[in-house]
Amino acid sequence: MFDKIVLASGNAGKLKEFSRLFADLNIEVLPQSQFDTPECPEPYRTFVENALAKARHAAKHSGLPALADDSGICAAALNGAPGILSARYAGANPKSDAANNKRLSDDLADKADKSCYYACVLVLVRHENDPQPIIAEGIWHGQWQTEAAGTNGFGYDPHFYLPEHNCTAAELAPEIKNAESHRGQALRELLRKIEAL
């Protein structure tokens, strides 16, 4: 097992979430910014390809094992959009959660089907040229809610309504979110795979 891994992301919300999830294993999660890692291009159309590219990039610049997550929200009525473009759905200058949420609300306004899901793919490489990256996936189903509610999440969480909880992801207690979220599911699968090595 590792005692340190680099998170291939500049997202403060993800760093906080992963640090909390890995704390139980005594694994320190370091941001790639500590290693002056430039932003990695994400030219691919799938979560898994982008996550693998980011993990290899972070491992190359840090010399440490690297974990990358590529995740997003996919709306059934929009053929899976925003998908891999979730972080910059409303444009990249600057990236804005509020603008992304507004665009998705607008795009779903005339659609009867408001079902959506969060997808998360985690890729862990032991080194830049790891021939067998560890890959794990999680899917979290919900419904799009136009009105924002809650302050415990980031991204699309205030609009991601969970019928079984009668609230949005941003209204869930962090321990429930960690147990049920797409990222929590993917992390548990990743840890099972690491332990089986």
Concise account of the structure shown:
This protein is α/β, with parallel strands linked by helices and 197 residues long. The protein has five helices and seven strands; from the N terminus they run E-H-E-H-E-H-E-E-E-E-H-H. Strands 2-1-3-4-5-6-7 form a seven-stranded mixed sheet.
Instruction: Tell me the radius of gyration.
Output: 16 Å
What ranges have pLDDT less than 50 throughout 5 or more consecutive residues?
none
What order do the helices and strands follow?
A: EHEHEHEEEEHH
Which CATH class?
A: Alpha Beta
How many strands appear in the DSSP assignment? 7
Strand order of the largest sheet: 2-1-3-4-5-6-7
Label the structural class.
alpha/beta
Number of domains: 1
Number of helices: 5
How much of the sequence lies in strands comes to 15-25%
Can you give the mean pLDDT? Answer: 93
Give the overall shape, derived from the CA principal axes: globular
Distance between the termini: 10 Å
CATH topology: Maf protein
Helix content: 25-40%
CATH architecture verdict: Alpha-Beta Complex
Largest sheet: 7 strands, mixed
